[in-house]
Specification:
By secondary structure, this protein is of the alpha+beta class. It is built from four helices and 13 strands.
Length: about 180
């Protein structure tokens, strides 16, 4: 599981000026967390997802994979596994992503699942990320959440299992075959 650093409060700009130490840091409300390196399975799944998302975004947006900082606020900068920014929001594409992307996706790992379902989900919802996908190896499922703006929280829109196609209205031509992800 990710652990916070000892330093009490830090901004993204302060964190980005620290010398590199080989660790991957994510920042949540001024607390920096170090995350372990992803497993080979995690990387294989992420590559498969990128290969599905990238062509589907052509002409309508951009797709990025971790490590990529997404600065949601001065002291909040997670690194989602996959990020989609539609062309209409391209102004947030700077040296890193500085603003709210249209879709974020996390591939659950035993060491990160609690954070992905807890702190990260709450953070993305609080900052207004419209869509959040969780790829769950244990359940062999892709969970698609959409933001209920009135409630300020995500609602499960769809759970896609083997034999299903995961889709989003944000990228109308996207069709992720769940069997291929968990195959």
């Amino acid at each position: 599981m990710s652990q916070p650093l000892v330093r009490p409060y830090i901004t993204y700009e302060e964190l980005s000026r620290l010398p590199g130490d080989g660790h991957r840091y994510e920042l949540f409300d001024g607390e920096a967390y170090v995350s372990p390196s992803p497993s080979l399975w995690h990387q294989d799944v992420l590559i498969s997802l990128f290969l599905a998302f990238h062509p589907a975004a052509q002409g309508v947006g951009r797709v990025y994979i971790a490590p990529m900082d997404v600065v949601l606020a001065p002291a909040t900068a997670p690194q989602p596994d996959l990020v989609v920014v539609l062309d209409e929001n391209a102004s947030i594409l700077k040296d890193v992503i500085r603003g709210v992307p249209d879709l974020v996706l996390e591939v659950l790992s035993p060491s990160t699942a609690a954070m992905d379902r807890g702190l990260k989900m709450e953070t993305y919802a609080r900052h207004g990320v419209p869509e959040y996908w969780l790829v769950d190896r244990e359940r062999q499922a892709i969970e698609i959440y959409r933001l209920d703006r009135a409630a300020g929280a995500y609602r499960l829109a769809q759970t896609c299992r083997r034999g299903d196609q995961a889709t989003t209205p944000l990228l109308p031509v996207l069709s992720v075959e769940v069997d291929r992800i968990f195959g």
